[in-house]
Every structure is written in structure tokens, then in C-alpha cells.
């Protein structure tokens, strides 16, 4: 028993001594976590340089755009061919991706050798060999019935300007075929296929093997957004935000970036970590000074690195009693596969002895232990360096996602990763230690490069089909200049019909007289009460106007909610609620006993026969209070005040919010003669010549006309641009068949239009993996404010996904892009329609005055105009395009309705005092 313990102690001591000896010799190869964090930070800096257009030229980590815009979503289907060229052998695959949601992939492949004379010969011979191998495979598998999409995995650095094009930057992995560098390899392949003949294929995608790995794993793992190869060579790719990739246009969505990390350190940034052994490897390579990171990590060099170390240790008398064999002196005799055998858990020492004996060496027990530890240090350094660079990528993705922690999957492939018994475990452990805030799952790719090329092709095909279907769905919303001109002309016709006595009753644009005869001239003064009712909120204000050298407007107000049950109850209940709010405000202001002139902004279609008389034509914006339509709202307000019997008010004027907006802006800008509301509802008013308003007496001067253009189209005149989605929204509304123009362009309905489009796209499998949630079915859930948020240029797609997630929609990045496109299309049409209507108004004013050119200002209010990031710009451009002889300035109204009500009241009082 004692002998066994002594033997065990002796062996442990022997092992310890040998390990210390090797550690001292290879101290520069043993990297601490602090050093790895330093390397990781340097790699992040190199990534930034590669992504920037300014520094990409000099960057060693090239960060090449791959034009792969999406990972698989599981809906891919069809038959594909794939070619995999990147090592000593060449593979052709047939990949069948099943449909009907089975997510099944069947593969059939053949491997063809590539003779050394082809690898080192002419480029045309290399591609001819590839084409002939492809033809042989297709003939053996009877693949030529129809044109088959093909993906080409080409595992060398290429600069791509599109998915099916790639210019070879440089050969690696001992490839030296002439006449290919600087050329498009896809075009070379197509020419070779044509020369060979007898093949009906469509080369759709060029793919790096790293991208293939990520895409292959991404089919089964939706979170997979990184691909890493550690084999003959080494490289990584990942999904980067498009807005960060300067080398390509566009900032929506993501694109896979091929880092080409093998060249990391070529500019000297890793010089303090490169050992003399690495320098010897580099000097003897076919590309000295290039791919330095790859030479420290990959399988092509790892075995040779161990051989050089063993030879140097032998020469120093540290191994094999100083006796080196010719085999140990021969380059390439010690291979990376030997390292994998030597580091096997149980058979490692036995394998070590056999390998060393095969190299004509006579190893002792001590020698075998030392050689095994050399292999461990070399392979562990490779895993450490790989982990440091991968940690940099994961950190960047986490920052892109703006998350404290990241949950993601990394697709892995390569002979070193696959065959080395300890490598995966070491890599995983170090990565998790370097980035504890990233929860990483590592997935080994099965037939990664080939299957991945097919998946890239399948995704590309899916995106093309999806884009076509989505474009077809949205085509009806994209109005041409001719269509907008028609809308302008029809609007002008309807305005004319609304002004004429004989056609007024059938006109869809009612052109209601407001009895406001002039805009403010700046001399208005006094103290007024104003009411503002136009939506779910009701506002009561005191407005103080001061003129002279210190012209000013001061306002005090309170906002009160109008509950839904009152909006849709009886008229008496509505006006009693309004008076209750007025009473509360007068108490709040201490003005219960003061009888101020009052202006009432009532933002619904009214037929006026005087400044203080307005009969409600119809409710809009969700109001449905009974016994109001056809009645004078001023009388209803006076009756409610009498019922309360607490105070008395002098109601001077009733007006639309559009008129209030015009009057507010005209107070500051005397060229303002038009008011526009683009918010929950939409409407326009303008100063019309009295001679044109046949529904009121008198031919002199002007009067403001409330167009009530929201009703434009109720007579079917714009049915040609009325989509099925507009029809669905209309059918669900409270006033079916009414306010058609408003329903196509106002804030109350835009979100609903988007929701109906999203449901349609989802039903056709183009969004949200075909899953329509209950929330998406809920009317009103997609608010118009979401359009403004989603379309913000400052909003990353991640934030779009966050908005959708709040709506119960588990969206991918692709889904977010589609939703953003839908929102943009709907809001653009709204702004263009508003612009076409405005062009009709300004051109009519120009014609009224017989002018060749008109300068005019428009006062604007409304949340859509104010808050949507693009609405105002598109509106202005449309007006310029459709009314080129009018120079229109848009002036944003501040507190338009309340201030406007006071101004109308004082203008009306001035007019009465002059009569």
C-alpha cells in the first residue's frame, strides 16, 4: 500500500515539475483575464474602425457587409442547391426545406477533392472544376427539372455590394489561384456554369462560411445572431444595426457583418501579445504580416506552433535529452489533429507517446507530460483569444440592444471546435467569465456552411416574395402625382358646389359660412371667456388681450374630461356637464359674478346663420349625443346655463377650431387667411370673397368659410383611391359612410387603418409568424401616437419592437421594419391628401384674386401636424408640387382654439359697434 502511495506521489511531483518547466518556457502564452479584457477592448475599437467609412480603409478588422438582412424565421421552404468552397475539399449539397410549419431540413451532399494544381493554378480552372462538380452532382441526383436557387459558400474575404456579388480581397488557407483577386467570384462561377452547360440554376447568394454557420443554427435557434468558425481558419460574423454600417446605405433594420477577424493585429495592435514562436510561424507562412490573429488561433497553424515550441525546447535540452529527430525538424509533421489526440482526457498520455514515437523520438514519461502541457497552453491560448474577440462582439450586440443583460445564441463550426476534446468547454467558460452580463448558448452547426448557404438563399427568396406581397398590399396607398392632382381638382370642384346655392345640398364639402368677416388687425384688447370643445377634453379659459407698445395675450385655463357615456348620452346631459365645468372654472378663478363676453369653439360641422348661431349638422370624432343634430348649440348652451341658474354669460360667437386657429395666427401674421387642423380630426377654413358665397346675402368683402372638408368623398368622388382597409375602418365607425376624407387622413383613424393592414399581412403569414393576437383584434389598440413614435428617425428598431411588445405582438426585427413601412405608407398618404386639399384652397384664393402668384400664410394646429416626424414636411412638399404658383407659409398655432375664440369675440364686437 505504501508503495502505491509513493508511486502516486512521485508521479504527481513529476507532473508538477514538468508543468512548471513548460509554464516558465511559455509564460508569454498564458493570458490573464485582465489581459483578455484588454484584448477585447482593442478588438471593439477595431470593429468601430471597420464600420466607419472614414477609417475602414486602414482598419485590419474589415467588418464587411454581407447584405444578409435577416436570419431564418422558420417559414422558409423549397429546394435549394449549395456549394461550399473554402478548404482542401469542395462540397455540393441539395437542401430541402419543408413547408407547413414542420421546420424540417433534408440534405444530400457529395464531396469532391480539389487537386493542388487547381488550387495554385488559374482561376478559370478552379471555377471550371467547381462547375463540373456541380453538374456531376445534379446529374447523379436528377436535379434539372426546373431552375433551382443556389447559394455559394465562399470562405475567403470578399467585399460585397449586394447579396449575389463579391469581389475577392485576398486568398487565405493556402489558396493562390491566379486572376481571381479583385474579381467578382459570383460572376466567375456563373461564367463557368455557362461554359460547362447543362445546368439550370440561379445563383442568388454569396455566403461566407461564418455567415453560413450563423444561418444554419438560426433556422433552429431564433436567438442566433453570431456565427464563429474555429477550424483551418477562424472568423466571426454577427447581426449589426444597419445605422452603424457606414459602407452601405440605409439605417433601417440589421445586416450581417463578416468581421474577418483573422487580420486583427496586422497593424501592430497585438504586438505585445505576439510571441517569438508566432513571429516564426508568420515568417514561414505564405502571407507574412497578414492574418496574425488567425495564425495565433486557427487549426492551420496550431500544430506547427507546437512543433516549433517542442523543437526549441529540445535544442535547449528541456525535452528528449536534447535529441531532435528529422521529423521534428520538418515543417508540417506535427499537426493540429495530434493536439486533439494528445489532450484527450484518459488516453492523452498514451496518444502522446505514440505520436512522438511516430516522429522518431524516444520520449520519457516526463517528456510526454511536458508535451501534453505544451499542447494545452497553445490550444488554451487559442480558445482565450477567440473568447476575447467574441466577448467584444457580444458586448457590442448588448449595447446595440440597449440591454443590461443579453440572451443570445452563438452558432459554432470548424474542425478545431468540433474535434478538440477540451476546446468548446474552455471557450464557453472564458466567454461567460469575460461577459457575465451576456447569457450565451453555444450551438454546434450541422453541415453549417452548406446548409447555411441554402438558408441564406431561402431567406433571400422569402424576403423577395414577402416584399412583393407587402408592396402589393400597400400599393393602393401610394398615390401618384396624377392621382393627387385629381384629388386637388375634385376638391376644388366640391368647394365650388358647396358655395353655390343650387348644388350646396348635394356637395360633400359643405363650405359653411362662419359670419367671421375679417381677421384681427392687432388692435384687439379686453378680457374674454372662451370654451373649447372638440374631443374627449373640454377647456375653459380666460383670455386677456392687451394692445399698444406691449401687445400681449395672457391665458388661464382648466381642462375637463368628457366621459364616454356623456359623449354618447343625451344632448341635455352633455351641455349640463359643460356648464358644470364652466361653474367649477368660474369658482376657481373667483369670477362667478362677472359677465364676460364669451366665444365658444365648437369643433363640429355647424350651419351658421349668424356669428352666435350654429346648428349642428352632424357629430364627428366619436360623439353621438342625442337630440343635438339639427339644433342650435348656442341655444342648447344658454338653456343649460339657465337650468343651473348660478351665473350668466354673454355668448357672442360660436366658431370651429379651424377658424380659431386662423384667427390666432392672423393676430401675429397678417397674411394668414387660412386655418388648418390636422389632428384627431381634419378641417380647413379660409377667407372667401362674399360674391362667391351664394348661401349668404351680400357681395362685398370677405367671410371665413368653414369647408368641413372631412366629408369630401361622401358622394363617391374619391372611391378610386378608397382602399379595402378604409372601407373596413369606415364600417366599424360610428358614422358609416360619412367623413370619408377625414377617415383617410386624421389622427382618429390612421392607427386603425394600420391595425387593419397588420391583421391582413399577419393573416397572409407576412408578419408576427402568422399569429393574430387578441390584442391586435381589439379596435383602437393601435393608437395614432404609435405611428409618430415608430416613424421617428431617432427611434431604433429595438424601440419599435418594444412598442409592439406592449401591444402583445412578439415581433422580430423584420416585423418591426414591415410595421414601420406600413406606418410610413399610411401617414404619407394622409399628409399627401391633406396637401392636395390645401393646394385646392390656395389655388382657389389665387384665382379669386386674379393673381399670377400668391403669397399666403396658413395657421396650423393639431397633434398630427405637431407631433408626427414627417407629416408637416410631406404636406408642405405636396402643396408646392400641386400649387406651384402659390408660395405658402405654414405658421404653427399656439393655443389656437382658446385664443382664437377670444379674438373672434372681440372682432365680432368691433363689427357690431360699427354697424
Descriptive keywords:
single chain, 915 residues, alpha/beta, 6-stranded mixed β-sheet, 30 helices, elongated
Explain what this protein looks like in three dimensions:
- By secondary structure, the protein is α/β, with parallel strands linked by helices.
- Helix content is 45%, strand content 19%.
- The strands form six sheets. A six-stranded mixed β-sheet has the order 1-11-10-9-12-13, with helices on both faces. A six-stranded mixed β-sheet has the order 14-24-23-22-25-26, sandwiched between helices. Strands 4-3-2-5-8 form a five-stranded mixed β-sheet, sandwiched between helices.
- A hairpin with a 2-residue loop joins strand 19 and strand 20.
- Helix 9 crosses helix 11.
- The N and C termini lie far apart (128 Å).
- The model is unreliable at 1-11 (pLDDT under 50).
Strand-helix topology:
Layout: H1 2-25, H2 33-51, E1 64-65, E2 78-85, E3 89-97, E4 105-113, H3 116-119, H4 123-140, E5 148-154, E6 158-162, E7 165-168, H5 185-196, E8 201-207, H6 209-220, E9 224-230, E10 234-241, E11 254-258, H7 276-283, H8 292-297, H9 299-315, H10 326-329, H11 336-342, H12 348-358, H13 365-401, E12 406-413, H14 415-419, H15 423-434, E13 438-444, H16 448-474, H17 481-499, E14 512-513, E15 526-533, E16 537-546, E17 552-561, H18 564-567, H19 571-589, E18 597-602, E19 606-610, E20 613-616, H20 633-644, E21 650-655, H21 657-668, E22 672-678, E23 682-689, E24 702-706, H22 724-732, H23 740-745, H24 747-763, H25 784-790, H26 797-806, H27 813-848, E25 854-861, H28 863-867, H29 871-882, E26 886-892, H30 896-914
Parallel strand pairs: 2-5, 5-8, 9-12, 12-13, 15-18, 18-21, 22-25, 25-26
Antiparallel strand pairs: 1-11, 2-3, 3-4, 6-7, 9-10, 10-11, 14-24, 15-16, 16-17, 19-20, 22-23, 23-24
Helix pairs in contact: 1-13, 2-13, 4-5, 6-16, 7-9, 9-11, 9-13, 12-13, 13-15, 17-27, 19-20, 21-30, 22-24, 24-25, 24-27, 26-27, 27-29
